[in-house]
Amino acid sequence: MRFAAVVARMWLACACLAQEMPVPVFGTTVVDNGGLRGTIYYLKPSTGVLPDNFHRFQPKGTIYTRSLNVTPRFFKEGFPGVTKRVEWFAIDYEGKFWIEKAGEYRFALTSDDGSLLYIDDVLLVINDGVHPPRTREGLVKLARGVHTLRVPYFQGPRESVALVLEVAGEGESLRVFSMDEFTPPPSN
Question: Is the full-model pTM beyond 0.90?
Answer without folding.
Answer: no
